[in-house]
């Protein structure tokens, strides 16, 4: 049976690791210090683990005692260096949450929703010295539905990550691994997001604001605006069919009950779910700084 080393972070990494140990001998785990679920799982199952930044030889110093045929990266927070990439005897690959070469980088599913995409997917690819630039092994397409959020997309990913991994490992076991170059002309890259990046611009189109909000909805930090200098996190908006809005300013509150309605560039948005408590809105006031 193929021996494996796993690099993983977060809930998606944990759920995939949990399935993997049922079928394969996992020799070690590399994770980050904040992924306590993975750390606790490794301790409980007597899997050697290293938690922290693996660069500058730290990760390799830990794994060099373990002989593995394949290293798999799943939602891992860190880029790895060649000492770890080259440690496996047969293959080192990553599962990335987009249809590469599109959406290289961090949180690709969030960016895809923000950009109004209706199709994304996951890619198994070789790890090389670049960021998500290695040759493609397999891809699975996943639709983005109109009401999907960043969280629901991760639920979809969780259903396909492990089957994709088993497909790659089967190809390795029978010597039928087929690799495909990424087409650089089609590549796009999106960087790391922080909670401070979530502010809503009410001058955007209503469709863009709706995508912005659902991409970052709970349990993510959330899209937000300001009301009387208070930060207000909004988890869901919908597009109102109200037509008479030309006399209002972008961000202006034009209705309070039964739901708060706010003017956007090309229409009206209804605030359906507000995470921030005790917000008492006043008709006519303008959201934002």
TrEMBL record:
The keyword Thylakoid is assigned to this record: no
Domain Formyl transferase C-terminal intervals: 194-279
Domain Formyl transferase N-terminal: 54-163
Entry's Gene Ontology cellular component terms: cytosol
CDD domains named in the record: FMT_core (cd08369)
GO molecular function, one term: methionyl-tRNA formyltransferase activity
Keywords carried by this UniProt record: Transferase
InterPro entries associated with the record: Formyl_trans_C (IPR005793), Formyl_transf_N (IPR002376), Formyl_transf_N_sf (IPR036477), Formyl_transferase-like_C_sf (IPR011034)
Pfam families per UniProt: Formyl_trans_C, Formyl_trans_N
PANTHER family assigned to the protein according to its UniProt record, in alphabetical order: METHIONYL-TRNA FORMYLTRANSFERASE, METHIONYL-TRNA FORMYLTRANSFERASE, MITOCHONDRIAL
Protein known as: Methionyl-tRNA formyltransferase
Species per Swiss-Prot/TrEMBL record: Gelidibacter maritimus
Phylogenetic placement of the source organism: Bacteria, Pseudomonadati, Bacteroidota, Flavobacteriia, Flavobacteriales
